[in-house]
Amino acid sequence: MPELKAILWDHDGTLVETEPYWIEAEEELALIYGASWNEADAIACVGSPMRETGERLRIAGVHDMSADEIVDWLVDRVAVMMTERGILWMPGVQELFLQCREQGIRCAVVSNAWRKVVDITVAGLPEGVVEYVLAGDEMIVAKPDPWPYAHAAEVLGVPRENCIAIEDALPGTLSAEAAGIAVLTVKGMMQVPAGPHRSRVIDLSDVTLDTLRDVVNGKQLELVEVAE
């Protein structure tokens, strides 16, 4: 049976509750330009590559900026929100990181979000536990392509069967699954649908490293209150 050696963490909605910040920033920018954009549009972008969100906003009416310029604006705005308002940790995250430090479980962050935002979060985690960060502005191809998770496991030097990805969105879940990495999803703004061998929990409050070991060894958890 495979041994758990590494956790590959998503960022937005998994480590920290930044999705409301992104939505607020998108709505602010749309308002400046009088673009047609609402909360439903923003939620539809959850988990998607940042440049895809930028292009959607450009098409919606932010015509004076390129998709890349829109992304840079959003990243700067969210970074300010995180700095001024604080980091909103998701339930159970800090406790799991402490367990990782105590038991020698290696960690990487694999996020479609830009490094400027991810680094703010990593600075608030136990020092030295996160060994590698792969941010959206550094990816050859973004989630849902399998490359981000496969590459992170390769950089850590950990076989994929000894890794688990923790996600909250479908693009990242598909990315990890396509890379042959076990996935545990938490309930996010866009709930990940049920699927074969796909484990889902409400949040990480009651999740321990032993829970993750069970998933790596093939146990499927279904602890989400669903309305499907």
Please describe what this structure looks like.
The protein has 228 residues and is of the alpha/beta class. It has 2 domains: 6-17 and 89-216, HAD superfamily/HAD-like (Rossmann fold), CATH 3.40.50; 19-85, DNA polymerase, domain 1 (Orthogonal Bundle), CATH 1.10.150. The chain has 9 helices and 6 strands; from the N terminus they run βαααααβαβαβαββα. The chain has a 6-stranded parallel sheet with strand order 3-2-1-4-5-6, with helices on both faces. Strand 2, helix 6 (115-122) and strand 3 form a beta-alpha-beta unit. The longest helix has 19 residues, at 67-85. The mean pLDDT is 93.
In short:
The protein has helices at 19-33, 39-44, 50-60, 67-85, 93-103, 115-122, 147-156, 170-178, 209-216; strands at 6-9, 106-110, 130-134, 163-167, 182-186, 199-201. The chain has 228 residues and is α/β, with parallel strands linked by helices.
Q: Within the largest sheet, what's the order of strands?
A: 3-2-1-4-5-6
Inertia-based shape? globular
CATH architecture of the largest domain: 3-Layer(aba) Sandwich
SSE string, helix = H, strand = E?
Answer: EHHHHHEHEHEHEEH
Q: Please describe the biggest sheet, giving its number of strands, its sense, and whether it closes into a barrel.
A: 6 strands, parallel
CATH-assigned homologous superfamily of the largest domain: HAD superfamily/HAD-like
> Helix segment count?
9
Global structural class: alpha/beta
CATH topology of the largest domain: Rossmann fold
Mean pLDDT: 93
Instruction: Report the helical percentage.
Output: 40-55%
β-strand percent reads 5-15%
Rg, Cα atoms, Å: 17 Å
Total DSSP E strands: 6
